[in-house]
Specification:
mainly alpha, rod-shaped
Length: 117
């Protein structure tokens, strides 16, 4: 991900609407590009200050801790979706295997029936 793509995805990240497939590239770019990280910090701070439920009267708000906690929360959400999709995939593959085994079994039974008779 380049700086322009990163900047275009900041709002989606802060709102929690970033597509999962962009998340890893977003995090990697954030970790290696100081300018983009600073832009994210500023926009994150502005959003949290404007959001009444996150507003803190305590002026000692720790931006790094807040942003790190948000990254962790977002990472957990993405991981849970990946895990859920993985389990759904495994279930579908298992169902396909069982169906295929049933077809093969029935086909073999039919061949035996024809050969006997």
């Amino acid at each position: 991900m380049n700086c322009r793509e990163f900047a275009n995805n900041i709002k989606d990240f802060i709102k929690g609407t970033m597509p999962d497939e962009k998340y890893e590239d977003f995090v990697n770019h954030n970790d290696c590009c100081e300018e983009c990280h600073e832009e994210l910090e500023i926009l994150y701070l502005v959003q949290n200050t404007l959001n009444e439920e996150n507003y803190m009267e305590d002026s000692s708000y720790n931006l790094d801790e807040g942003l790190n906690n948000y990254f962790k929360k977002y990472t957990d959400k993405v991981y849970k979706r990946y895990k859920s999709n993985f389990l759904k995939g495994i279930t579908l593959i298992s169902a396909e295997i069982v169906s295929l085994a049933s077809v093969i079994y029935c086909g073999l039974k039919f061949l035996v029936y024809i050969m006997k008779g």
